Amino acid sequence: MTAPVAAHRALPARSAGRSPLRGTGRLCRAILRRDRIRLSVWTISMTVFVTYFAAALSSVFDDDARAARAEIMRTPAGIAMAGPGYGLEHYTPMVAVANEGVLWIVLALAIMAILHVVRHARGEEESGRAELVRAGAVGPLAPVLATLITLAGHLALISVLGAVGTLASPDDASFVDGLGMMAGCAASALVFGAAALVASQISASSRGALGGALAVFGLAFVLRAAGDMIRLEGSALSWSSPIAWAQQMRPYVDLRWWPALLALAAAGALLLAAAALASRRDLGQGLVAARPGPARARPWLRGPLALAWRQQRAVLGWSALGLGLLWFATGTMMELIDDMAADLVADNPVVAAMFGADPSQMATAFLGTMMLFVALCAAAYGIVATIGGCRAEESAGRLEQVLAAPVGRMRWLAAQLLVALGGTTALLWLSVAALASGMRMVGMQEPSLAEHALTALAYTPATLAFAAFGAALVGWAPRGASLAWALLAVTLVLEMFGPMLDAPEALRELSVLHHVPDVYSGDAEPLPVVILAIAVGALLLAALIGFRRRGVQTR
């Protein structure tokens, strides 16, 4: 028997004995090396946020101010935007951090987890790198496990550093309670990362996987908020949401660790499901296969605009479904909010002093808070569609092939931006329509449909500003395009915590949404909206000019 024949016959035996997890460690090191800057930015940002939050609540508010904030946590807006309200009777600074900060820490870490998983699971297959990696000594399940291991390690590091950051509070700091708070948030985020891993096996595109994972988070948010409104300190409905598992650990009040085990068990089950699904599909394909197209394309499908639409329609569809259900459910809870507001104003002079004796003022304030999150959710989609649609095509090398055809640079970018900005606008208006529909389903006729429409119109330029800023970065500094997420994070922090931390007005004006008039409260000043619209147009023009002048980058 010749040597080549013997070697050929030996190959199946070696392949059969290869572990499906072989190469997991090397893939973990490769992911950490590639993402070292991105992971470092997330780690530093979260640590700084927790440290500043813990220090500020101790130094800015006295005992009376914190007691007043505890009363706010009993209001519908406080319950929906914070949590079940443990320790409100003795509202110390770190109890306030746990009540008011856990939801937002989970939100930030969940977004980070979803983006990490989709990028290294479905994104690697789309770019073709996964096929090259799998051609080496790498088991078929190693990429799935390596993605979740690196995510878990990153979340663990953030938990420890965040727990150290909580020691900045001079009053009731505790490393153990801080570690419990951060570990609970990290465990919940790990569940959403594992859900994104499952979505990456089902969807054939990274955009579809991202939209599906974000829809899961939106559903979890609705279940948690609705459950906590049914009964303060949580109900059975609350426990169906991974977000509630972090809040139910009760740090700084009555710390208990076992809710984190629910999150770890759920993440483990989702990992096993993702591994099982990965073994049942072809590389580069999803379990839900893309429908085969016709032999000949219709005339309207020819051109960069049709290409951009086909690339972005999956994540737009998932986002529309998730946000539509989220805000419709929120609208149906407004009747309950009105009843709770009437009771709180009647029984609690502190709440009456803050919101006014008229309970409708509290409902109006709650609607204003909801519109903030409606705009932020739509803006987040805009950033994903702009950076993901433009930058991903360029870095993957597909843009060069498109530009080799008779397609100009500005025409291609204009098509991508038109679909991204059109989708952002559609999501904003759909969310407002879903919120209004939910309110009318339970018999609430105020605000009027005209007021809802004017509110959506007022928020449109500010919502588009985030995507336009990302587009300008793509045009002039593509490697820094992710700074658009920093603008979104700054806006969220300033809008949510600026009034609470008594931030200077000059600092709060850095928030794009700070300049939007509150139509629900009777403010219909059009000048800020016009100025924002002009700014959006200028950013888009700058994006087109910059993209035309620079070279195409494939890395």
Automatic annotation (TrEMBL):
<protein>
    <submittedName>
        <fullName>ABC transporter permease</fullName>
    </submittedName>
</protein>
<feature type="transmembrane region" description="Helical">
    <location>
        <begin position="138"/>
        <end position="167"/>
    </location>
</feature>
<feature type="transmembrane region" description="Helical">
    <location>
        <begin position="456"/>
        <end position="476"/>
    </location>
</feature>
<feature type="transmembrane region" description="Helical">
    <location>
        <begin position="483"/>
        <end position="501"/>
    </location>
</feature>
<keyword id="KW-0472">Membrane</keyword>
<feature type="transmembrane region" description="Helical">
    <location>
        <begin position="257"/>
        <end position="278"/>
    </location>
</feature>
<feature type="transmembrane region" description="Helical">
    <location>
        <begin position="39"/>
        <end position="61"/>
    </location>
</feature>
<feature type="region of interest" description="Disordered">
    <location>
        <begin position="1"/>
        <end position="20"/>
    </location>
</feature>
<feature type="transmembrane region" description="Helical">
    <location>
        <begin position="315"/>
        <end position="334"/>
    </location>
</feature>
<keyword id="KW-0812">Transmembrane</keyword>
<feature type="transmembrane region" description="Helical">
    <location>
        <begin position="365"/>
        <end position="391"/>
    </location>
</feature>
<feature type="transmembrane region" description="Helical">
    <location>
        <begin position="210"/>
        <end position="227"/>
    </location>
</feature>
<feature type="transmembrane region" description="Helical">
    <location>
        <begin position="527"/>
        <end position="547"/>
    </location>
</feature>
<keyword id="KW-1133">Transmembrane helix</keyword>
<feature type="transmembrane region" description="Helical">
    <location>
        <begin position="179"/>
        <end position="198"/>
    </location>
</feature>
<feature type="transmembrane region" description="Helical">
    <location>
        <begin position="412"/>
        <end position="436"/>
    </location>
</feature>
<feature type="transmembrane region" description="Helical">
    <location>
        <begin position="101"/>
        <end position="118"/>
    </location>
</feature>
